[in-house]
Amino acid sequence: ANNEFDHPVSPNHIDWKVFYPAYPSQPGLVEFADVGCGYGGLLMNLATMFPEKLMMGMEIRQKVSAYVRQKIEALRTLHPGQYQNISVVQTNAMKYLPNYFRKAQLSKMFFLFPDPHFKKSKQKWRIVSPTLISEYAFALREGGIVYTITDVEEVHIWMAKHFQEHRLFRRLSAEEMATDPVVEKLWDSTEEGKKVTRNGGQKFCACFERIPSAS
Ligand code: SAM
């Protein structure tokens, strides 16, 4: 597989008009990032829920990201004035996330049904690791939220453990999750979530708040 992509040198080198060509006014900063967005179901769901927020899906597979791009274009045509706030980029988010987002730019990050890898030797390929969590903390603003859901309990335990152990994150309580209207969208918006439902599988959800660095 070819895992090298044309990637921007830094967030300052991105022409956001390319991603959001008809967004009313000059596009501001992307605030939501869907990491490993797959077929983009979550973005399409959140687009109309947060019409004033710019969102970016990051997907490593060329064909899948091309599909999402076409789907977004079709939705834009079908619903004039809508879906201008979502876009997708083909990239390895584990490698290039800091090339896309500045410090404290994001208010929400999503990890929905990330690919599970069990073997010890493959741990470095996990989309959630102590090193990567520090990068996510950098891109997120204080009060920003990381949303995770998976059907693999071991992955859930892994993600929860590492976010909870990180000094810049705090796990949300069940009560806090219940008051966030985004949480209910995590379960069945995406292809993978629907597949797990069809197969009668279990899902494990956890959310974490980016807390201030100075204590
Ligand atoms: N979030 C989607 C959903 O819920 O349907 C997709 C879930 S799928 C199991 C995991 C996705 O993450 C795949 O589409 C895969 O190509 C993508 N992916 C894996 N590693 C990635 C990486 N390093 N950067 C970007 N995307 C990645």
TrEMBL record:
<keyword id="KW-0820">tRNA-binding</keyword>
<dbReference type="GO" id="GO:0106143">
    <property type="term" value="C:tRNA (m7G46) methyltransferase complex"/>
</dbReference>
<feature type="active site">
    <location>
        <position position="115"/>
    </location>
</feature>
<comment type="function">
    <text>Catalyzes the formation of N(7)-methylguanine at position 46 (m7G46) in tRNA.</text>
</comment>
<comment type="pathway">
    <text>tRNA modification; N(7)-methylguanine-tRNA biosynthesis.</text>
</comment>
<dbReference type="InterPro" id="IPR003358">
    <property type="entry name" value="tRNA_(Gua-N-7)_MeTrfase_Trmb"/>
</dbReference>
<feature type="binding site">
    <location>
        <position position="36"/>
    </location>
    <ligand>
        <name>S-adenosyl-L-methionine</name>
    </ligand>
</feature>
<comment type="similarity">
    <text>Belongs to the class I-like SAM-binding methyltransferase superfamily. TrmB family.</text>
</comment>
<dbReference type="InterPro" id="IPR025763">
    <property type="entry name" value="Trm8_euk"/>
</dbReference>
<keyword id="KW-0949">S-adenosyl-L-methionine</keyword>
<keyword id="KW-0539">Nucleus</keyword>
<feature type="binding site">
    <location>
        <position position="112"/>
    </location>
    <ligand>
        <name>S-adenosyl-L-methionine</name>
    </ligand>
</feature>
<protein>
    <recommendedName>
        <fullName>tRNA (guanine-N(7)-)-methyltransferase</fullName>
        <ecNumber>2.1.1.33</ecNumber>
    </recommendedName>
</protein>
<feature type="binding site">
    <location>
        <begin position="92"/>
        <end position="93"/>
    </location>
    <ligand>
        <name>S-adenosyl-L-methionine</name>
    </ligand>
</feature>
<keyword id="KW-0808">Transferase</keyword>
<keyword id="KW-0694">RNA-binding</keyword>
<dbReference type="Pfam" id="PF02390">
    <property type="entry name" value="Methyltransf_4"/>
</dbReference>
<dbReference type="InterPro" id="IPR029063">
    <property type="entry name" value="SAM-dependent_MTases_sf"/>
</dbReference>
<keyword id="KW-0819">tRNA processing</keyword>
<feature type="binding site">
    <location>
        <begin position="190"/>
        <end position="192"/>
    </location>
    <ligand>
        <name>S-adenosyl-L-methionine</name>
    </ligand>
</feature>
<keyword id="KW-0489">Methyltransferase</keyword>
<dbReference type="GO" id="GO:0008176">
    <property type="term" value="F:tRNA (guanine(46)-N7)-methyltransferase activity"/>
</dbReference>
<feature type="binding site">
    <location>
        <begin position="59"/>
        <end position="60"/>
    </location>
    <ligand>
        <name>S-adenosyl-L-methionine</name>
    </ligand>
</feature>
<dbReference type="GO" id="GO:0005634">
    <property type="term" value="C:nucleus"/>
</dbReference>
<dbReference type="GO" id="GO:0000049">
    <property type="term" value="F:tRNA binding"/>
</dbReference>
